[in-house]
């Protein structure tokens, strides 16, 4: 199942003094990437992480994200949603063309 997870900071944080936990976070994210649960990761214009994941379920994605150091420290959380295949092409492709 394809999952979209968007990070949200839970409080105002001075990130300049958080280098140790940010390094832990980067290591954990790398492990997720190597495990193939994490397919892509970006930062949006607000510097929030945007993750594309491949997991068994939404609950599985939540379990994985809950293990991130910044989530454990209650500095961030994620909005998690399932991504489904686009089906709009059915409206323009006639059956005889398939």
Automatic annotation (TrEMBL):
<protein>
    <recommendedName>
        <fullName>Superoxide dismutase</fullName>
    </recommendedName>
</protein>
